[in-house]
Amino acid sequence: MVGPENKHQLSPRQRERVENFNSLREGLLAKGFAEKILTVSMLKANLMVFVTTLPAVLVLYGLYIIVNGVERRSYGGSGFLFILALLLGIVLHELIHGAVWAVYCKNKWQSVHFGVNWATLTPYCHCAEALSIPKYAIGCAMPTILLGFLPYLFGLAFNHLPIAHFGLLFILAGGGDAYILWLIRKEKHSLILDHPYLVGCIVFYPNRQACVEQ
Ligand SMILES: [Zn+2]
């Protein structure tokens, strides 16, 4: 059971998520799945960019300079446009998570919730159904591929620094998602369920008894 001791600190929406989570969890445990809780604090998830995506961004930025040279041109009037694009990108990042998971969820968009953790100003997307690891992982990685790697490669190929910068920032922003992917890398045959109110998830893996029964 998740967090009955601090249930009064949760918002009504979070309490609803806890109830949904607990009923799904009980169903999976009754089917013989064993669980492993993989949660991190919002602070740790944000700090993980230093070990997950920051090294990749530094290497890719180096590659950009090797290919296209150092550019001293400023953004000029397009600075405002760049900031607008970043804000739009932050919203799109969560929408892309949601769109992929909605495709895989039985109840589609009804099982996808969006919100903002105001304490750390971190927007999030929550999936309320248990998904197989590959499906969950695709939804986890897709925003970084579409908003990070694709614009970076475009900027690299066409020597367009603002677009490359945009891509690099959104690769960096995928640090928390990359950390979750790292945590679930060995759980290929499991199901995964987002934690109802913490960063991270619960992995349900078929234990030996469940394998015999299936
Ligand atoms: Zn994300």
Q: What can you see in these coordinates?
A:
The protein has 214 residues and is of the alpha+beta class. The chain has a domain of 119 residues. A four-stranded antiparallel sheet has the order 1-6-5-4. Strands 2-3 form a two-stranded antiparallel ribbon. Strand 2 and strand 3 form a beta hairpin. Helix 4 runs antiparallel to helix 5 and helix 5 crosses helix 7. The longest helix is centred in the middle third of the chain and has 27 residues. The chain is elongated. The two termini are 25 Å apart. Bound molecules: zinc ion.
Task: Describe the structure in brief.
With 214 residues, the chain is α+β, with helices and mostly antiparallel strands.
What share of residues is helical?
55-70%
Number of strands: 6
Please summarize the sheet with the most strands: 4 strands, antiparallel
Each distinct ligand: zinc ion
- For the biggest β-sheet, the strand order reads 1-6-5-4
Share of residues in strands: 15-25%
Cα(first) to Cα(last) distance is 25 Å
Radius of gyration from CA coordinates: 19 Å
Q: What low-confidence regions span 5 or more consecutive residues with pLDDT below 50?
A: 210-214
Mean pLDDT: 87
The DSSP helix count reads 8
What keyword list fits this structure?
214 residues; alpha+beta; four-stranded antiparallel sheet; two-stranded antiparallel sheet; 8 helices; binds zinc ion
